[in-house]
Amino acid sequence: MPATPAWPPKSTPRLFVEQPLAVGATLNIAGNSAHYLTGVMRLKEGAPVKLFDDISGEYLATIAHLGKRDLDLTVDAKLRDRELSPDLWICQALVKKDRFDWIAEKACELGISRFVPVLTARCVVDKVKDDRLRTHMIEAAEQCERTALPQIATLTRIEALLQKWPAERTLYFCDERGGEPFLDAITAEPGAVLIGPEGGFTDSENAAIRAHPNARPVSLGPRILRADTAAVTAISVWMAKNGDWSA
């Protein structure tokens, strides 16, 4: 006898929704999400869709009704609880928009719990759009099957970041001027990585960071890395040693 096809299929699309989910609930989906499901994926009534809400976890739903510009989904079953994200923050100095968006996207894919935009003296931009960052993170979470979205902090000047830094969290300062090998420096305590802008930190900023009691200057190797490369590298190293990559 032929094997019973897996359900739901691996090709089942995943969608983030703002409203809390529960088995038996009915949701109306409109706008870009509806267009994606019907216009891009060409789903019909009865097709499965995976949903997650960043609150309770992931659910399996079925398209119950198709409208011209919207659709109704019925939530059939809970697939899994919301994941426990590794307790890692990334404190990223502002860089050019496209590269900053890319860093936010990849940081979400890699599993961080909090994204902190930082303003420094040599940042080439001085503003960030939280809604754009959130959109990139949602798209990343949908693709990589995350059930939790990173928190996005408000833009913070480096001086304020250091002044209000939580006492229980290690700040791994990825400094191109040198420091302890990052892999050796990682401990079991909650952590954060601090990445500078394209032009690096000023001498006074560097000195202030190094003087902070929670800061550990670390090296990411013998080569000078661009900000986006440094961010992905640092997150990856931390996840490999203290995150959930070995689970």
Description of the structure:
Strand 6, helix 2 (97-110) and strand 7 (114-119) form a beta-alpha-beta unit. The strands form two sheets. Strands 6, 7, 8, 9, 10, 11, 12 and 13 form an eight-stranded parallel beta sheet that branches. Helix 2 packs parallel to helix 3 and helix 2 runs parallel beside helix 7. The model has no long low-confidence stretch (mean pLDDT 93). Helices cover 30% and strands 28% of the residues. The chain has two domains: 14-81, Ribosomal Protein L25, Chain P (Beta Barrel); 88-242, Alpha/beta knot. It has helices at 31-40, 97-110, 130-144, 158-163, 182-185, 203-211, 227-242, and strands spanning 14-16, 26-30, 48-52, 57-66, 70-81, 88-93, 114-119, 151-152, 156-157, 170-174, 180-181, 191-195, 215-219.
Q: Which tags fit this structure?
A:
247 residues; 7 helices; 2 domains; Ribosomal Protein L25, Chain P; alpha/beta; Alpha/beta knot; eight-stranded parallel beta sheet
